[in-house]
Queue: 2 jobs
Job 1
Amino acid sequence: MFTKLMIDQMDRKVQQQQQHQQRQLQHTKAPFPAWKETPSAMVATGKSGSLTKASGATTSTSGAKSKQRKKCVRPCPNPNPNQSPKEEGKRIGESDDLPDANTGRMNRYYGGKSPTGAGAGAGPDLTLVSHNLEDKVSKIARRNALKELAAMQTRHEQSTDKNEDALRELQKSIPEISKIFDVHCRIGSGTFSSVLLGTLQRERCLGETSRRRFAIKHHNPTNHPERILRELECMFRIGGVDNCIGINCVVRYNDNVAFVMPYMNHDRFHDIYRSMGLQEVRNYMRNLLIALRHVHKFSVIHRDVKPSNILYNRRTGKFLLCDFGLAQKIDADGNIVQANELSNAATLALMRDMEAARNLMMQDGNSAQDEVQEYLACKHEQEVSLRRVRALGGGVGVDYSLINQSPFDAQVAALAKKDVAAQRADTQRLINRLRFVNPNADPNHYVSPTNTNKKEVHASRAGTPGYRPPEVLLRCPVQTTAVDVWAAGVIMLATLSSLHPFFRAPNDCAALSEIINVFGDIEVRKTAFMMDRLVLLTQKMTALDLRRLCMRFRLADHFLSPAVQRRHRRADGTVEACKSCEQATYNCICRHSSHKIETYEGLDIYPAHAYDLMSRLLELNPQKRISADEALKHPFFNDQHRIVSGISLQQQHQQRLLQQQQQQQQQPGPFRVRETLPSAAARTLKPYICQTLGGIQAKVEVLAKSGTAPDAPA
Ligand SMILES: Nc1ncnc2c1ncn2[C@@H]1O[C@H](COP(=O)(O)OP(=O)(O)OP(=O)(O)O)[C@@H](O)[C@H]1O
C-alpha cells in the first residue's frame, strides 16, 4: 500500500517535472527563433549521451575549430581529480540540466555565453533538441524521484519497522510470549534490550483500562548470560519495594530471555526537568534516595543511575528505579563479586524461586484501572490549583510547572532581540567553559598511578558517561555504593541548574575535565592523590560556586538583565569580566570570589539546604561522600525543622508533628503552589553533620547553657 502510494506520488512528480521542462523549452525557443546550429555542433558527452552545445560553434569544420570545440565541450574541469569519470559524468549530467534556482531557466552549459550572445551562431534542429531534452529530463526526473522515494521509504521503515521488528523479533525468538501476552508496541529500547508493552491474553474480555499492563524486556541475544543473571537476581531479591522495580516472571527460550515487569506510565525527564518546582525536586530526590538506600542495603551498586532508568510519573508521583543490568555486588572488603562467582546452588535456588514467582505472576502487576483513577484525580487537583493560581494573578509563588511557563520565558518575551542574543552568547560561553577540554590532553593517558612499581588492579568503568564519579574516571579499583550517590547528585545538579545533560562527557578524559571545570583542579588533584593517582593537568581551574552556577543557568534573565548590566557598565561601555570564570565581575560564579557580586536575594526558589545536599552528593572524595541513608536525613527533606532555644526538644517535636499534620490536610496533592523563600532566608551553606538525636540534644544543651540561640539545624 505504502509502495503503491509512493509510486503514484513519484509518477505525479515526474509528470510535473516534464510539464515544467516543456514550458521551459517553449520559453527558451520563443525568443530566439533565429538561433540555429548544425547538428555537427552538437557533441555527445558522457555515457548518458547528453548533448552540450559548444560555445562559439560555427559551421566551420576546420581542425583547429573542431579542437577548440572539443575543448569547449567540457562543461567545467573536474574539481576533484580523484573522482572517477563515471562520477564526473553523473555530476555533469545532473548539474547540467537542473533548472536554475534564480532564473528558473535550464542550467545548460553554453561555454560561458548565453545563447543570445555573440557566440551563438547557427543552431541545431530544435525539434530534435527538444525531443532529446525531454527524454533526458524525464530520465533525470525519474532518477531523482527514485532516489527520493528510496530515502522516504527508508525513513518510514526506520520509524515503523523498528517497532514491528521488535515485536516480530520477540515473537520469533520466544514463541511462548505470544501464547500468554498480547504484545502491543515497543515502549523503550536501550543498548542491551528492547522493552515492549504487553497485556494478558486471558484479560482480553476486560475493558481497555482494566487490563493489567506489563513491560516485557527482551534482552538482545548478544547480551552476556552473566549480565542477565545479575539483573534478574537484583530485581528478584531487591526489587518490588522501596521504589525499585520488581519482576513478575522470566521467559527463556534457547538463548533468548525476556523479563516481565509491571508497566509504569512515566514522564521523560527531558520534558519535565525545567519545570520542576521545589516540592517536586524534593519528592523526586527523596524517592531516588529511598531506592538507593534500599539497593545499597544489599551491598549492591546499581551503577547506572540516570534519568532514563528512573520511571517517574509526575501526575501520580509514582517512582521506580529500573535497569539493574550493570549492578554489581560488593563483598565485605569492598571487592566486586562477579555473577559467575554465585554458587551453583545459589543460582539454582534463584531459578526455583523464579519458577514459583512465575506461577504467582498473575496476582501481581499494576492495574491500569488504578492509574486511570489516579490520573483523573490528579487532573482535577491540577485544575483546582490552576484556578487558584489564576485567582492569585500569577507572580511570585506560582508553580510555573502548572502553567508550563517559567518566569524566565515570560521575561525573555519582554526583552529586546539584541539583549536575548547577548544573553544566549553569554550562556554559550559559560557552557563552553564547563565543557572545555585541553586539546593537548591525551584521552588514554590523563591519569597515572603515583607508584608505578605497584601492579595495577583492574578498575570497573561500568556506567553511563556523564554520570561516572571521579573514582571511576580516576581508575580507582575500590569502588563502593558511593558511585550511585554521585549519579544522584548529577541528576540534582541538572534539575537545579535546568541544564541537562549537565556533563556531556564524550569520553572519560573529557568527563574528568568537565568535573575539574566545576570543582577546580586542586580538589580533583587532592582526591586523586588520596587514591594513589596523579592527574596530568596543564591548566589550573578555579572551583565554581554550585549555587550561583545553578542560578546563573536557571535565572539567566536576572543575571543578564540589561538594567543590572547598565549599573555595572564602565565609562567606555564595557563590563569588567572575572578572569577565572569569565563572567562579568558582578555575576562572578567562582567559589571564592573577591568581586563585589549581585546576590539576587529572594529570587531562588530552592533553599540553601538544597545546594548543601547537592554538594554532599557531589563530594569528590568517595570516602567523604554522604550515603543515601544519611542524605535522607538531610534538612533539605525536612526544611521546616529549626531548633528553637528555650523550648524543650520534646515540645518542638510535638509542634513539628502538629505542623506536619496541618500541612498534610492543607496540601491538595502532588501539585501545590510553589513555596516562596523569605528574602532573609539563609544564603550560606551551613555545614551539615548527620547527628543522632542525642548529639543534637547535647548541642542544644551546650548552647542553652552558653545563652546563644542556634538558628539552624545542627
Ligand atoms: N517497567 C517499565 N515500564 C515502562 N517503561 C519501561 C519499563 N522498563 C523499561 N522501560 C522503558 O524502556 C527503556 C529501556 O529500558 P532499560 O533501561 O531497562 O533497557 P536497557 O537496554 O538496559 O537500556 P540502557 O542501555 O539505557 O541501559 C527505559 O528507559 C524506559 O523508558
Job 2
Amino acid sequence: MDANGEELAPAVRSILSAARDRTGGGERVSVDARSVPEAFAAAEADGRAPVIAEVKPTSPTTDGRRDDDPVDLARAMVDGGAAALSVLTESDHFGGSPASLERIRAAVDVPVLRKDFILTEAQLDVVESDAVLLIARFVDDLPALVAAARERGFQPLVEVHTRAELDRAVAADADLIGINNRDLARLEVDLDTFESLAPSVPDDVTLLAESGIASTADVQRMRSAGADALLIGSAIMDGDVTANVRRLTTA
Ligand SMILES: O=C(O)c1ccccc1NCC(=O)[C@H](O)[C@H](O)COP(=O)(O)O
C-alpha cells in the first residue's frame, strides 16, 4: 500500500524498495542550473513544441533494452530539436546511472532533468543536474524537499497524478509541475488524466504532460489541453531518436 491506500504494482514496489536502500548523501551539490522555462521559450520561438526527451534505456513497461552510448542518444535527441533532456539515474529497473547523466550534461547545452525516485534530501546530493524530479505520491514532506532542491540550485519538477497530489504540489510552492498520465499503482497510461487535471493548475505554473505521448496527435492533444511542454520517453527511444524527436517537436 502507498500513502493513497492503493496497492502498488509489483515493479513499483520493487523500485521504491531499491530507492529506500539508496543513501545518497555525498558532498552537498551546488549547481548553476540552465533554465528549463527559458529552454521551453526558446523552442517555442523557434517553432518547435517544447519537448523533454528522455534517455531511458529500459523500464518495467518496455520490452528489451537499448545499449547505445547514452551520450550518443542524448546528442541525437538535441539534434532532433529536444528543448531539454531527462536522464534516468535509476539503475536497477531503468538501466540509468548518475555517471550517464554527468557525461550527458557535459556533452549538451540544454537543461538536463535527473529522473529518479528521490525520497530524501540526502539523495539530492548525488550528481549535478539542472532539474530534479520529485514524485508527490512518494515524498512525505514535499515542501521540505522542494526547498532543499532549490537550496542546491536545482529546479524541482513535481510530478502529480491526482487532484490531491496537485494540491500538495501547489501548496509546496512548485512552479514546474508534471501531470503523469501513467498511474504508478497499476502502470496504466491514460491521456485523459492530463485533460482532467490541467484546468486546476494555476496559470503561473509551467505545466508538463508526462508519459504515454506517442504520436503527433497526442502532442497536439496535450498542447490543446494546456501543456506548456511534453516529457516523452518510450516513443523517442523506439527507433531513430533524432527522427522521432523531430516528428514530435514539429507536431
Ligand atoms: O516507464 C515505466 O515503465 C515506469 C514504470 C514504473 C514507474 C515509472 C515509470 N516511468 C517513469 C516515467 O515517468 C516515464 O519514464 C516518463 O514519464 C516517460 O514516459 P513514456 O513517454 O511513456 O516513456
